[in-house]
Write a structure and sequence with these properties.
This protein is α+β, with helices and mostly antiparallel strands. The protein has 3 domains: about 150 residues, tt1808, chain A; about 55 residues; about 100 residues, Alpha-Beta Complex (Outer Surface Protein A, domain 3), CATH 3.90.930. Helices cover about 35% and strands about 20% of the residues. Helix 5 crosses helix 6. The chain is flat, with a radius of gyration of 25 Å.
Length: about 325
């Protein structure tokens, strides 16, 4: 999908169709929409979505290799102010940016209130996207969510920045209760790495606690869920306690996406496979635990990538990716 037209055909039109818009009705999904934008007569926006006869959503597409930036908002920015549109979508077919006018009326915000990547579509986004569907579209409802989404996203980004590189002000705040007389350069240099490590450990512990709770609540494995390939002699396959525990961790990670009964362990000579629906074509995770150096096999569709793990706890660090793979098998 190197061209803009390919993005439109392969991604954008199916996306609009999934939101229940009639992509074959030019009175509902208007291609190559033209309006009298100031200073740019004849300039077109790729799609305008009409709801109840009024233009409510503008869509601008770019080639998939384009890194979306505010410079690509130019057409949408001009059209937003001269139409009834309340929302604008900028996409390269992989990343989607949703904009509105939270900061100033009839002036498109440069910062999107909602961003997502089709290759990593999180479950909670389904609820937000549903609000843009033809049957549930409500400007007030979306704007109410947009305020929270936009500023929550900005706060999360700032938290991530502080985790990666704590600012001086943040370090000051974190050690304020430690009764250190003066905040000198030496104190800053001493405590900045500690704050960084502590922050990471808090996040890790919180995730581990949540997943451990889910693990404890996971039902006992029914007979037949674990399948061990039978063999004899020196080649006999032995499923270890470590593999069983790894299986239970993976099962807990995806329990709110896939029913636990769908997750099956099938042990092999060289690895322990964790499958969906006991189907070799639906790999979820592979546990390469039979050697001194242990690896976790993660999947993007059918392609496996091995990552080194020293302990079972490190499986939790890859929870997001495991959950993304599980989403592929939702049915």
């Amino acid at each position: 999908m190197v061209t803009e037209e390919a993005v439109k055909t392969a991604v954008v039109l199916p996306f609009l169709n999934a939101l229940d818009y009639d992509i074959f009705n030019p009175h509902e999904v208007v291609p190559e929409f033209t309006a009298d934008a100031v200073g740019k007569k004849g300039e077109k926006v790729d799609y305008a979505i009409k709801i109840d006869g009024s233009i409510r959503i503008l869509v601008e597409c770019k080639p998939i290799m384009t890194n979306l930036d505010k410079v690509h908002l130019a057409q949408l920015y001009r059209y937003f102010s001269v139409t009834d549109a309340k929302f604008a979508i900028l996409t390269n077919g992989r990343t989607f940016h949703f904009h509105t006018d939270l900061e100033a009326p009839n002036k498109l915000d440069e910062r999107p209130f909602l961003t997502f990547d089709l290759s990593d579509l999180q479950g909670h986004l389904t609820h937000e996207l549903k609000k843009f569907s033809k049957g549930e579209f409500s400007v007030d409802s979306i704007l109410q969510s947009a305020h929270q989404l936009k500023y929550t996203s900005a706060i999360k980004k700032e938290i991530i920045n502080q985790i990666e590189a704590p600012s001086e002000d943040f370090v000051r705040m974190m050690i304020a209760g430690l009764q250190i007389p003066r905040f000198t350069t030496a104190v800053k240099d001493q405590f900045t790495p500690m704050v960084k490590v502590a922050f990471r450990e808090v996040v890790r512990d919180a995730v581990q606690a949540r997943l451990s709770t889910a693990l404890a609540e996971t039902e006992v494995i029914e007979p037949g869920v674990i399948e061990i390939n039978a063999s004899t002699g020196d080649d006999e396959i032995v499923t270890t306690d470590e593999e069983r525990e790894g299986f239970m961790i993976v099962r807990a990670i995806v329990r709110d996406i896939l029913k636990p009964a769908r997750i099956v362990m099938r042990d092999q000579k060289s690895y322990c496979g964790i499958l969906v629906d006991d189907n070799n074509r639906k790999p979820l995770v592979r546990l390469h635990f039979n050697r001194t150096v242990k690896y976790l096999g993660l999947f993007d569709k059918e392609q496996e990538e091995r990552v080194k793990v020293d302990t079972l706890d490190e499986i939790y660090e890859h929870a997001d990716r495991i959950r993304s793979t599980a989403q592929i098998y939702v049915s």
